[in-house]
Design brief:
5-stranded parallel β-sheet; single chain; 13 helices; binds acetyl coenzyme *A; alpha/beta; globular; 6-stranded mixed β-sheet
C-alpha cells in the first residue's frame, strides 16, 4: 500500500476536525466536499459564509453537513482574542490588535487548534509559506522538548530498493533557511522521529548530507555538518545517524562500501537531512520533477499539527494534506 493510501485509511479510522482558513478558495471548497463525503476528516471552512457559498455554487460543490465559520462573527472570537493577547502581550501586541487578528481566518484557525476546538489546520493554497507559518509559530508554538519547527517531505520513489520500500524522508526543505549546527541537529532528530511516528519506518537511518564524506573535504560548511551530527547523537543516542555523507554515499551500498564502510547508515539511509534550505528545497524538487517521485510535506516540531500547501496545489493535494494532518493529530 502506498503512503497516501495508508494515510487515508488511517485518517478515516479516527476522524479528526481540520480547519481550512482559505474557506472560499475553490480547490479548498472542492476538497472539503471530498473529505466530508469520504469521511476522511471533519473539514471546517473559515471565511465569509456568503463568499464560501458563492464559490460552492460556481463550482457545483455540495457543502451539506460541512461547518462554515465566519471568524468575525464567531462567538469564540472574544475568547480567542484573549488567548492571543496573553500569548503576544510581551511581544508588544495590544488589545485592539488581538481583537482585529482574531477575526483573521489564519489567526482564528491556529487559535481554534491551540484552544482544542479543532485538531489541526491546513492552509497555503493562497497564503505564502511564511504567512502561513508565522501565526502557527506564534500561537501553536513548539511541542515540549523541541525548540525548532522544521519540515519533512515524505518522498515516494518508484525504485523500491531505496529507503524503506521506496519511501524516503527529506528534511528540512521548507522552514529554516540557514540552520546553525545545533538547529541542524534538531532537524535531524525530528526527521528521524517523523520517519518512525508518521511514516511507520521502524528503523530510521538518518544521513546528514554534505559535499564531503567522512572528512574527504575540509571546509567550514563540512565542519558544521560534522558538528550537527555530534550534537544530534547527544540529543538522541538511540537514533541511527551519521554525517557528514554525500548523497550517493548515503543511498548507494556500493559507494558506501568505498567511502564510508564503517558507517551504520551509509548505503541504506532512509532519512536525508540537507545542510540548508537552498539545498533541501532544490533537492526535493529535483527528486519530484526529474526523478518522478511523489512528495508530501509535513511540518514537524509544532505542538499541534498544521500543514502548508503549495500555491500550485491540486484538490487531491489538499485532501491528502488534510489526511496527513489528521493522522498527525491522532498521534499528538
Ligand atoms: N521554529 C520555532 N520557532 C520559530 C522558527 C522555527 N523554525 N522560526 C521562527 N520562529 C519563531 C520566532 O522566534 C518568533 O517567535 P516570537 O515572535 O515569539 O519571538 C516567531 O516564530 C515569529 O518569527 P518571525 O521572526 O516573525 O519570523 P521569521 O522572520 O523568523 O520567519 C519563517 C519565520 C516564516 C519560518 C521564515 O524562516 C521563512 O520564511 N522561512 C522560509 C519559508 C519559505 O519560503 N520556504 C520555501 C518555500 S516552501 C516550498 O517550496 C514547499
Amino acid at each position: 500500500m502506498g503512503i497516501i493510501e495508508n494515510v487515508r485509511k488511517k485518517a478515516s479510522a479516527d476522524v479528526k476536525t481540520i480547519v481550512l482558513p482559505e474557506g472560499s478558495e475553490p480547490r479548498t471548497v472542492a476538497a472539503a466536499q471530498i473529505l466530508q463525503r469520504e469521511r476522511l476528516a471533519r473539514p471546517v471552512l473559515l471565511g465569509d459564509p456568503e463568499e464560501i457559498l458563492q464559490t460552492a455554487r460556481e463550482t457545483g460543490t455540495d457543502l451539506t453537513g460541512i461547518e462554515i465559520i465566519d471568524p468575525a462573527r464567531s462567538p469564540r472570537r472574544e475568547a480567542y482574542a484573549k488567548t492571543l493577547l496573553e500569548l503576544r502581550r510581551a511581544k508588544g501586541m495590544t488589545e485592539e490588535e488581538a481583537d482585529v487578528l482574531s477575526a483573521d481566518p489564519m489567526y482564528y484557525g491556529v487559535l481554534a487548534v491551540r484552544c482544542g476546538d479543532a485538531d489541526g489546520l491546513v492552509s497555503g493554497a493562497i497564503h505564502s509559506t511564511g504567512d502561513m507559518l508565522r501565526p502557527a509559530l506564534q500561537v501553536i508554538r513548539t511541542k515540549p522538548g523541541t525548540r525548532l519547527v522544521s519540515s519533512a517531505f515524505l518522498v515516494e520513489c518508484a525504485d523500491h530498493t531505496l529507503g524503506q520500500n521506496g519511501l524516503l524522508v527529506y528534511s528540512d526543505c521548507v522552514v529554516v533557511p540557514c540552520p546553525t549546527a545545533e538547529e541542524l541537529a534538531h532537524i535531524a532528530v525530528s526527521a528521524g522521529h517523523t520517519a518512525h511516528d508518521l511514516c511507520g519506518i521502524e528503523e530510521p537511518r538518518v544521513a546528514l548530507l554534505s559535499f564531503s564524506t567522512k572528512g574527504s573535504a575540509s571546509h567550514e560548511l563540512v565542519s558544521k555538518v560534522q558538528e550537527a551530527a555530534r550534537i544530534a547523537h547527544e540529543l538522541d543516542p538511540e537514533l541511527a545517524l551519521d554525517g557528514e555523507l554525500q548523497f550517493d554515499a548515503a543511498l548507494v551500498p556500493e559507494v558506501a562500501k568505498i567511502k564510508a564502510k564503517d558507517s551504520p547508515v551509509a548505503g541504506r539511509a532512509n532519512v536525508l537531512v540537507f545542510p540548508d534550505l537552498q539545498s533541501g528545497n532544490i533537492g526535493y524538487k529535483i527528486t519530484q520533477r526529474i526523478g518522478g517521485a511523489e512528495a508530501f510535506a509535513v511540518l514537524q516540531g509544532l505542538a499541534k499539527p498544521c500543514n502548508d500547501l503549495s500555491r500550485g496545489c491540486s484538490v487531491d493535494d489538499i485532501v491528502n494534506t488534510v489526511c496527513i494532518t489528521a493522522v498527525q493529530a491522532q498521534k499528538a
